[in-house]
Amino acid sequence: MSEPREVALCVTCLVDQVMPEVGVAAVKLLRQAGCQVEFPPEQTCCGQPFFNSGYQEEARGLAKRLIEIFEPYACVVLPSGSCTTMIRYEYPHLFDAEPLWQERAERLAAKTFELGEFLTKETAWQPAGQLPPNSSVTYHDSCHMCRMLGLKDHPRELLAAAGADLQEMEQSDRCCGFG
After folding, report:
1. Hey, how many other C-beta atoms are within 10 angstroms of the C-beta on 42?
2. Confidence of residue 145 (pLDDT cuts 50, 70, 90)
3. Is residue 76 part of a domain?
4. 62 assigned to some structural domain
5. Which domain holds residue 59?
6. By C-alpha distance, which of 21, 26, 62, 71 is closest to 44?
7. Which helix (H) or strand (E) holds 30?
8. Would 52 be classed as within a structural domain?
9. What CATH number should be reported for the domain holding residue 20?
10. More confident residue, 138 or 19
11. What does the pLDDT read at residue 151?
């Protein structure tokens, strides 16, 4: 049997403060996929709330801290399309005037995955069990996952693997208004 793949879980500030059960579920899924999950306790917000509000300097400060914390790891997984987008696409631009930090941001971006993307593309994850028969669900695509990360199929693949009867809603990719 091969060694478990080590991944660092960046739980995001929202999961940490409001929905810790999402972080627990993410750890469970990653372990089911054969991963050894590391959780750096000093992790912090990725800076997206500051960035989205126009506070670039404050966002840069949080980005630097997150880069320092996660750069030692080979792979970083987040249960958030928005935070994954921030790290992958916005971090390098935050440091246009700081080439050394920009390079560090680009290295982190290259090894950062959204949870569902990681499970479907990087592992052979299979659900531990199936949903009850006739479990009908629908799925709303988040803007960042769908438009920025291009991850429209991965969530549906995970739901299908768990035995869900996916009923597509009309305009599933329409913005919810989050921003």
Report:
1. 8
2. low
3. yes
4. yes
5. 5-127
6. 62
7. helix 20-32
8. yes
9. 3.40.50
10. 19
11. 64
